[in-house]
């Protein structure tokens, strides 16, 4: 202690200290500072010899402040960040393929996918679209439309498609099947599915599906009109009976249909089929009383009856009277059976004729491009919009758009590091020491039993390094290896051997006090230990630090890091006052 007083009374020693060195560690212990990160602690490289301006208790009070700050420093993340601001989801782009007579944007106004994502409607006809599809890049659609006399050119990547227009019609010379292929190539979901839209580009192909249902359900439950298919004009020699209806190619709205009364007219129509270079079908003419149309939009069913007023054999041509009729189980079976073709049809309609003899004949099925009729047009369009929103909500969200909830940080147990890697950083105020071999300093010392207490009474310290005696009243047994009186070794040993960062962290018996001979230790064990004021402060510091470590201990990695920090502080403190 006299050495410390002489050392601290030297004015040249105090003058050579860095600016603020003494004031930083002479803060009153009652002041509470916020937990500092290890990076903040490294800004003061010599926090160990802080309070040497006044001898006595100020030395250990300053050292206690530094140790408290070190024990309070968190080893992991400080705290979890607050709830992040919600990520604004980009609106989902819905491409509606339909003519300009219906403004579909108003039917999707206010609707959201999953109740939170906006829907942006882009509407155009097949003739106004072009696209490029990629394997990994999806489908890029180019749209050129004229709105109120202004040409609008826009490119976008749609997320969903509503098809309300025919993709192929021989009568109008419109063939947009390549666009359907491109949309399917880009993997875009649609109502109805693009697979079914492409299959509906040939009426005989669709009729073949009706034939399967006919054979499955039977003529009583599914009365299908009798029809004959010809791939070209050569097999068309005659019809089994007359009158017959000849249908050329693939057309809509009653186009390409001819009623043939006799064989001579039939031969004339055969020549027209040869000129058209297409396929044709013939079916028996049914003298109908009215037409029947059963439509299904999602889970909504409606049935209509249409009666011709003008007397035309085509009920959809000229004047006709339309009325809604009751939905019977027979009609429901028809439309439900047809809605299962091509993987499922969300929107479809079945057309049939009711003959004057009271029999029904199914003649055609339509997909999502069917025209809407009746007094419930607005309701049907709203049903289609709700169906599309429901389908969009069932789709998986694109990757990376929805942030995952942040999980609270939990310390993970890691395997013990090798002795040379346990140190978090260089000692405070010291360069990085060279890591000695494991057990080197310990092997140089002669193992001796502890001064007091048997091995069965020894307990591990919170740092898991050295066993401590259960008796805590004797300051001689609670001395820390980094105290000034223990820093000197016998036989000229270096004070750095007191605590090395490369020593193992396993439990070992505490070595005998260095700097004292065996005889002196024997004498000390005989006489009662007298408490020393400075050593009591060091003892209370070690006890308080051990208690805080035991309460804050989370995982072995935290205890290891804290123990290493304490050893570095003790080593720096010991080397500072060694000559």
UniProtKB/TrEMBL annotation:
UniProt KW Phosphoprotein keyword: yes
One of the record's GO molecular function terms: ATP binding
Biased composition (Low complexity): 30-39, 435-446, 453-488
Keyword annotations from UniProtKB, A to Z: Cytoplasmic vesicle, Phosphoprotein, Synapse
Top-level taxon in the UniProt lineage: Eukaryota
Major localization listed first in the record, in broad terms: cytoplasm
InterPro entries in alphabetical order: ATP_grasp_subdomain_1 (IPR013815), PreATP-grasp_dom_sf (IPR016185), Synapsin (IPR001359), Synapsin_ATP-bd_dom (IPR020898), Synapsin_CS (IPR019735), Synapsin_P_site (IPR019736), Synapsin_pre-ATP-grasp_dom (IPR020897)
Subcellular localization: Cytoplasmic vesicle, Secretory vesicle, Synaptic vesicle
Biased composition (Polar residues): 489-508, 536-555
Transmembrane segments: none
GO cellular component: synaptic vesicle membrane
Record-given protein name: Synapsin-3 isoform X1
Annotated source species: Physeter macrocephalus (Sperm whale)
Gene of this entry: SYN3
